[in-house]
Amino acid sequence: MNGCVSWVLIRPADLQRAETGQILAEDTIDLDGRRGMAAQKATRMRRLLAAADTGRAALRARQEELDHLLLAAPATGWVEAVANARYLLILLAQTPAAEDLRRARLIADVFPDFERLLAERNTRTSRGTPGSHPRASFRGG
After folding, report:
1. Which segments in the chain show pLDDT lower than 70?
2. Phi, psi of 128 (to 5 degrees)
3. Which of 36, 42, 49, 101 lies at 20 to 30 Å from 115 by C-alpha?
4. Can you spell out the DSSP letters for 115-141?
5. pTM of whole model > 0.70?
6. Cβ(88)–Cβ(66) below 8 Å
């Protein structure tokens, strides 16, 4: 250090404890701007990975909560049963098994089928058409 002594001025305000949300310095230092491009890219990637991990953890928590809710009681009607099936198909679509193009197409095609069949059921039920019972579709009706 060439025998040089450098002095740092510490103000009494610097020694006080910071309260929650209090900004300690008026002029913040942009550290990213002082880094090279490679270091900036690495920092950005670390931040994005941390955000993605946080997002995945939150998604897992919400999925577990939904799983518990769906397991708590059976569906009370066709609309709930279809919602449950949609949820399961979305989970299946995120697995390696859904990478097969035929399965991916089957999964994609079933959603419009749900909409069409629920709409037809609602129309038949509102008119009181014979065979409008939900189980009639399983008997070929």
Report:
1. 1-29, 32, 128-141
2. 70, 35
3. 101
4. HHHHHHHHHHHHHT-TT-SGGGGGGT-
5. no
6. no
State the residue for tokens 């009607």: 77
Question: What is the rounded CA–CA span in Å between residue 124 and residue 105?
Answer: 29
The pair phi, psi for residue 133, each rounded to 5°, is -60, 140
Inter-residue contact 86 to 111 (CB < 8 Å):
yes
Can you point out the beta strands (E) in the chain? none
- For residue range 41-67, list pLDDT tens digits in order: 888 899 999 999 999 999 999 999 999
Nearest Cα neighbor of 137 from 128, 126, 124, 127 is: 124
Specify the pLDDT at position 58.
Answer: 93
